[in-house]
Design a protein that fits this description.
single chain, about 70% helix, disordered N terminus, about 350 residues, transport, name from scop, 5-stranded mixed beta sheet, 13 helices, alpha+beta, two-stranded antiparallel sheet
Length: about 350
């Protein structure tokens, strides 16, 4: 029973039930794993491109007809040489660029805008890296028959059906006029069919954009599901960020040891040791070049205090007993820092006593 309970606890801890932490979200974003619907891109592209065709249709028609007129009225009369062929090619290329460039610019703008709306600014090369897992046939088969693949299939069928219905309805509503185009001029026929095409494109783009709202909602849900974390993952991440408590405690212990060793090395240079006498020891040094006030170079209680006094005794550093001062300075004073103003008078008297004792004054 105990073994079963342990296994159940293990599986519960490994189950991905927790929402992704900010760090997890940031890491997955850097890898290019974001919630994104391709239908948003397609819908924006169709709307803006066909909108551009609607606005720029006359300009494009005039440019194209002007190019044809110049070709048959002027270029046809030129003598065929390398120079004239190069001139014709260059001028036709420029005219074609005038027609294509605005639509290409609109398409690029649509792609950039749709991606910015969904994922913001993101530059990463992670998706381009070669990964053997992507060509694993077993995992590939699992992806083909997964729930996500089924959703994509249903979505594709829905898009095809929706666009098919829209285009059929537009054609059906305009069938009578289409039949009459045989009696119209070529220019009128081209104008009519161009308008119908733009209407179908705009309607399809709008329908895809509306459908993309559902798709984007699903993509966000699926993305959130894929980046969920187990309780163990959250704990491990917290440890990585904050540091393993055991390692941190060892580092702190090592830092304390290094600090204590450095502190003890300063005791022989002290001018006086103020003691409790048994529990506290404060080592004071006064150097006018270093500071205007005396500096605490070492302090300790109990074992450390005894060690300070042993080193002081071995190096003939004067020890002065002052219980209230030793206790107060241990609580208030910081190592390698000047003493507080409240201790100036008491410490000055002790230093004066030490200097007299050593015949320094």
């Amino acid at each position: 029973m105990r073994l079963i309970r342990i296994n159940l606890q293990y599986f519960a801890a490994d189950e991905k039930t927790e929402k992704a932490t900010p760090k997890k979200r940031d890491d997955t974003r850097k890898k290019g794993q974001v919630a994104k619907s391709q239908d948003v891109n397609t819908g924006f592209l169709l709307l803006l491109v066909f909108g551009g065709l609607f606005l720029l249709g006359d300009y494009m028609k005039n440019t194209m007809t002007g190019m044809y007129e110049q070709t048959f009225q002027e270029y046809m009369n030129w003598e065929l040489t390398i120079d004239t062929a190069a001139t014709v090619f260059r001028e036709i290329t420029v005219e074609m660029a005038k027609v294509i460039a605005p639509i290409m610019g609109i398409a690029i703008l649509a792609g950039i805008t749709s991606n910015l709306i969904q994922v913001g600014i993101l530059f990463t090369a992670e998706p381009l890296k070669f990964d053997l897992k992507k060509v694993d046939p077993i995992k590939g088969a699992k992806r083909i028959f997964s729930a996500r693949a089924l959703v994509e299939l249903v979505k594709s069928l829905l898009k095809i059906s929706l666009i098919g219905v829209i285009t059929f309805m537009i054609i059906w509503l305009n069938k009578d006029q289409m039949m009459l185009m045989s009696q119209k001029s070529v220019e009128d026929a081209l104008l009519f069919f161009g308008e119908i095409t733009i209407i179908m494109g705009l309607a399809s783009g709008l329908a895809l954009l509306l459908l993309s709202i559902l798709d984007y909602t699903y993509q966000r849900y699926d993305h959130e599901k894929n980046i969920r974390m187990s309780k163990k993952d959250v704990k491990d991440e917290h440890k990585n960020i904050e540091g393993d408590p055991l390692i941190k405690s060892k580092i702190k212990e090592k830092q304390r040891q290094m600090s204590a060793a450095r502190m003890m090395s300063e005791v022989p240079e002290a001018d006086v040791i103020i003691t409790n006498p048994t529990h506290y020891a404060i080592a004071i040094k006064y150097d006018e070049e270093m500071s205007d006030a005396p500096i605490v170079v070492a302090k300790g209680v109990d074992f450390v205090a005894q060690k300070i006094k042993e080193i002081a005794k071995a190096h003939d550093v004067v020890m002065v007993e002052n219980r209230p001062l030793a206790r107060a300075m241990y609580q208030e004073a910081e190592i390698d820092q000047p003493i507080d103003e409240q201790f100036f008078k008491a410490v000055a008297e002790i230093l004066a006593y030490v200097y007299r004792l050593e015949k320094k004054v």
